[in-house]
C-alpha cells in the first residue's frame, strides 16, 4: 500500500484534485442557477409545482445515462469532460431549486414585513434579510449536493474522465495487487466527502453568527 | 365521582408537578382546574386517565382505584378532549367520531347513527360528516373533538384547554354551547384552563392550583371572587372581583315605566312623551332599538321623523332575572342613565337607574352579613 | 447521433436473444427488485420501531449521512475482488453478490429515514388523542401513525427504487448484465468516429441510457400512482367533491402539490 502510494504519488494527487474540482464546481454553478429559480418558486405560488416537478423529474435520470446522452443534446464530443460537469450541474440545480425555495419560504413573514416597513426595497430586502436567513436551509442542501457529488463523480470513469474512480478500474484491470488502488480510491473519496462537508459546515457557521446565539440561549 | 387522595407526581429530575393533591370532582358537575403554567393542572388531569401515572397516592373513579384498571380499558370509558382537538387527519369527521365505539367493538351502524346525532348536537351540519379535519375551521374541529369524546357516552369527560386555540368570539360560542350540552348530559367533567374568566364561567367548582402543584383554593366561583383564600388566589383571580362577583348575584330591582316611541314616529310625538333629552325607541314588537336625542335633532322641524340610522346604540340590555352585574352595566352604559331591562323575548319591561341597583346591592350585602350570601347563578 | 439511437432502438434484432435488450431489462428489474425488496424487509420494520419508540434516532441520522458519502462504484469493485475468489464454477454469484450488497446499502437509508421521519411527523396532539381514547400501542401504530406516515414512507421507497435502478447500471462494469451492459459494451468500442461500427456503438450507448431513464421514470410513475390512490384523501387534500371544499389548510394544499415527499432529513440524493 505504502509502496503503491510512493510510486504513484503524482498520479494520485492529480486524480484527487480532478475529483475535488468535479465535485465542487457543478454545485457552485448549480447554486448560481438555482437561486433565481428558487426565488421565483418561493415568490409565486403557481411557479412552485412546475419548477420543483421538473427538478424532481431530472433526478430520476441515472447519471450514467445523462453522461452519455448529453453529447446528443449539447453537440459535444462523446467522451468530453464538459458532459460530466453539465450533468452534475443539472443534478445540483434539481436539488437546490427546491431547497432554495423552501429556505426562502421558511423566513418568517413577520420579519419580512418588518423589513419592508423599515423601507427596504425588494432587492435590498432579498440580499440583506431573506437570503441570509435562508442560509441554514440552503447550506444543508448544498452539503447534500456536494457529498453525493463526490460519490457520483466516480461514475464518470465510464465516459473517460479521469478522477478517483479511475483507480477502481485500474485495480480491476490488474492481475496482481488489485487492492491498493481500489482502497486508496475509496479512502480518498470518503475523506474528500468528509472534508468538503466540514468546510461547508464551517462556512455556514461563520455566515450565520446569530444561530450560535440562539443555540446558547 | 373522581377523588384525588394525596396524589403526588415527581419526575426523575426531581421536579414536583403535583404535590399531595386531595381533590373531589363530584358526579354530574364541572370541576375546573386553573392556575399559571407549571402548576400541574394538566398533569393532574392526565393522571386521571393514566396518560401519566402518579408517583404516589390514589385516584378513585366511582370507588375504583384507577391504578387497578388497565390503561386502555380505563381510557375507553373516559371522554378526552385536548387543545388542538387532535383529530385524525386521515379519517373523515364521522370516522373520527366513531373511533371509541369501534375500539369497544360496538355495532358499526348504531355507532354511526349516534355519531350523526352527536354532530348535530354540537352544532355541525350532517354534510360535515364526510369531510376531513383539514377542511374544517378550528372551531369546527373542536366541536368534532367534543362529539368524538361523547361518542361512547362515557360518564366522565376530561377536557384539557379545549377552547384555548380558537378566537375569542368562537370561544364564547363554544363555551355557551358546552354549558347547554352539560345541562342535558350531566357528565362528570374535569376541565383544565389557564384562563380564570373561563374557569369562573364554566365551573360548578374551581380548583386554583399554585406552581409546584399545591391546591390553593377549591370553591364555587362566587366564593372564589368574594373570599379568596390567599394573596396568591386574590392576585390570580385578578381585578374587578367585586364587580365580577355581581355576575353571580341575582335580585329584583324595582323598574320604572319608560315612555317610548316607534321607529318612524314624528319628532314632535317624541318631544311630547319625553321625560328629558332622551327618548327610548322600540319596534312594533316592543323590542328596544336605541335612544333618540331630542336636542341633537337639527332644526327641530315637526315633520322630521325618528330615523333608525341616527339612534344612539350605546346602552346594553339586561334580562329580567339576570345577574345584578348585567343590570348595573345596562344603567352605566345607557346614554340617558336609565338601564333598559327586557323580558326573555327581548320586549321592554322598564328601566332602572344605577343608583337603584347600588341600593339593591347594598341591601343584599347587609342581609348577607347577617345571614349567608352564596347566591348561585350563572352570569 | 439521434438517428443512430433511433435505428438501434427500433431494430428488432437488438431486442431478442440472450444478450438482447429484453433480457437486459428483465435482469435489471430483477436485480433492482431483489435489492429494494430486501431493503424494505430490513428498513421498514426497523424504521417503524425507531419511529414509534423514539429509540435509536441517532442511528438513522448517522446511516443517512454516511450513505451519501459512500463511494458506490469503488465499493462494488472492492467487494467483487474480495468475493469472486471464493466462488468457482459456473455461477453468477460473484457478480450478483457485490452488486446486490451495494444496492442494498443504497436502498436501506432512504426507506429507514423516511419511515422514521414519517412517524415522527405525526402531530403529537393526534398521537396523544389516540392514546387518550384508549388505543393500545399497536393500535396507535396501525390505525394512526402508519396511515399518516404513509406518504413519506412511500417517497422513501420511491427514492430507494430510483437510486437502485440507476446504480444497477454500474454493475455491468464487473460483468453483470442489465441495462448497463449495452452502455459499457459501447464505451469499450471508442474512439467514436464516422464509421459504421461507431454509429452502431453510439446507438447502443444511447439506447441503454434511454432505457435506464425510461425504466426509472416508469417505476417512479407506477409507485407514485399507487401512492396517490392508497393515501387517505384527508392527507393528500384531494377531496371527493370540489363543491365540498372550504379553504383547505395550508398543509392540505402543500400535500396536494406533492410537497410531502421531501422528508426532513429524507432528502433525495442524486441517483448514481
Automatic annotation (TrEMBL), chain A:
It is a multi-pass membrane protein. One of its GO terms (biological process) is transmembrane transport. Residues 16-200 form the ABC transmembrane type-1 domain. Signal peptide: none annotated. GO terms for cellular component: plasma membrane. Coiled coil: none annotated. It comes from the Bacteria. It is found in: Cell membrane; Membrane. Its main location: membrane. It holds the Pfam family BPD_transp_1. Keywords: Membrane, Transmembrane, Transmembrane helix, Transport. Gene3D superfamilies: MetI-like. The chain crosses the membrane at residues 20-41, 47-69, 81-100, 182-207. Belongs to the binding-protein-dependent transport system permease family. This is Glycine/betaine ABC transporter permease. It comes from Nakamurella endophytica.
From TrEMBL, chain B:
Keywords: ATP-binding, Nucleotide-binding, Transport. Transmembrane segments: none annotated. PROSITE patterns: ABC_TRANSPORTER_1 (PS00211), ABC_TRANSPORTER_2 (PS50893). Pfam families: ABC_tran. One of its GO terms (molecular function) is ATP hydrolysis activity. Its EC number is 7.6.2.9. It comes from the Bacteria. Residues 2-237 form the ABC transporter domain. SUPFAM superfamilies: CBS-domain pair, P-loop containing nucleoside triphosphate hydrolases. It is an enzyme of class 7 (translocase). The keyword ATP-binding applies. SMART domains: AAA. Belongs to the ABC transporter superfamily. This is ABC-type quaternary amine transporter. It comes from Nakamurella endophytica.
TrEMBL record, chain C:
GO terms for biological process: glycine betaine transport; transmembrane transport. The chain crosses the membrane at residues 29-49, 69-87, 93-112, 160-184, 204-223. Keywords: Membrane, Transmembrane, Transmembrane helix, Transport. Its main location: membrane. InterPro entries: ABC_transp_perm/SBD (IPR051204), MetI-like (IPR000515), MetI-like_sf (IPR035906). Belongs to the binding-protein-dependent transport system permease family. This is Glycine/betaine ABC transporter permease. It comes from Nakamurella endophytica. The gene is proW.
